Amino acid sequence: MRKAKRRRRALLAVCLNLVALLFSTTAFITTYWCEGTQRVPKPNCAKGKKTNCINYNGDESHNESNSNVVHYSWETGDDRFLFRYFHTGIWYSCEENINGSGEKCRSFIDLAPASEKGVLWLSVVSEVLFILLLVVGFSLMCLEFFQSNNVVDGLKLNAFSAVFTVLSGLLGMVAHMMYTQVLQVTVSLGPEDWRPHSWDYGWSFCLAWCSFTCCMAASVTTLNSYTKTVIEFGHKHKIFEQALQEEQSFTDHNALKYMKERPVQSISSSLEISDDATRNIRKSGLVSTSVDLGEILESLGEEQC
Predict the structure, then answer these.
(1) What is the pLDDT of residue 239?
(2) End-to-end Cα spacing for the chain
(3) Which stretch of DSSP H or E encloses residue 81?
(4) For the chain, which domains are there?
(5) Most buried pick, 25, 32, 219, 239, via CB within 10 A?
(6) What pLDDT score was predicted for residue 96?
(7) Would you indicate the residue range of the signal peptide (predicted)?
């Protein structure tokens, strides 16, 4: 029963670690940490583009004419701008292509302010170490799960996997916090053609923090399994020592009782032997005295005759 519970705890830790590894890897390679819209000026209308553009004077022919000609547009306020969709990750930031189909991507490291690039690289290194330590912890947990027959080796593997998983969780938390700081500074101080009009955290950001949660849950489960196993060993060892002491005290008591009873028996037997000897001596003395008296009476009878 206890072995089955131990295997269930090990299986739960392995599943949580695997989920954390998948979530962290997906968040690291995707570009949906931040999503929103950017306000950009509408382009001029042309023959191939007649929507989401500015049509000066209501005549398309003037749009491609001499640049010295004054053009008028009746669009004011936000009507002169487009709100294009963008999404950003650790490596790239991609925006909607307003002049065609598809997206245009550029490096997020180039977009970050110079004062935040060091923090960004630290977050990238921490994310890589987070994933590597998760891989190591997952491998150790799998070995511990398949080596469950050998309790001592499984306990050692359990301890090492718990340490690696806790370290990976701490590194993941630091990496996520550093990248969040860099992202917020870039939103405020980044290039003007990139600054978002409205934005929010995306599903990659949620996956990253879910991976941290699963990682810490796996570490807690592993530590719990390790602690319970150690407590069970300590309890069994204590019971064994108590049983051994009781058996030893019982054996000593029996030996002492035997040693106490042995001299009494020997003394009583010696006393019995001495009593028998005295009785024999007394019997022999009585016999001899009776023989002597008979001889004396016989001699006296002869003399009288």
Answers:
(1) 76
(2) 113
(3) strand 81-88
(4) 2-241 (1.20.140.150)
(5) 219
(6) 85
(7) 1-27
Phi and psi at residue 216, to the nearest 5°: -70, -35
| Residue 98 to residue 102: CA distance in whole angstroms | 9
**What pLDDT, on the 0 to 100 scale, is given for residue 153?**
72
pLDDT value of position 182: 94
In sequence order, the 6+-apart residues with CB closer than 8 A to the CB of 226 are: 155, 158, 159, 162
**147 backbone dihedrals φ, ψ, rounded to 5°:** -105, 30
Beta carbons of 209 and 23 less than 8 angstroms apart: no
Beta bridge partners of 81: 41
How far apart are alpha carbons 165 and 214 in whole angstroms? 10
Task: Please count the CA atoms within 13 angstroms of the CA of 124 that sit on its side-chain side.
Answer: 14
Structure token digits, residue 114 = 């110079």
Phi, psi (rounded to 5 degrees) for 92? -130, 155
d(CA 191, CA 113): 9
Bridge-based pairing of strands 92-96 and 34-41 is unpaired
> Can you give 120-163 as a three-state secondary structure string?
HHHHHHHHHHHHHHHHHHHHHHHHHHHCCCCHHHHHHHHHHHHH
Do 93 and 105 form a contact (C-beta atoms < 8 A)? yes
**pLDDT per 10-residue tile (average), the chain, 305 residues:** 74 92 94 89 64 57 50 56 87 85 88 92 95 93 76 77 92 95 91 89 94 93 79 67 69 60 50 52 47 45 42
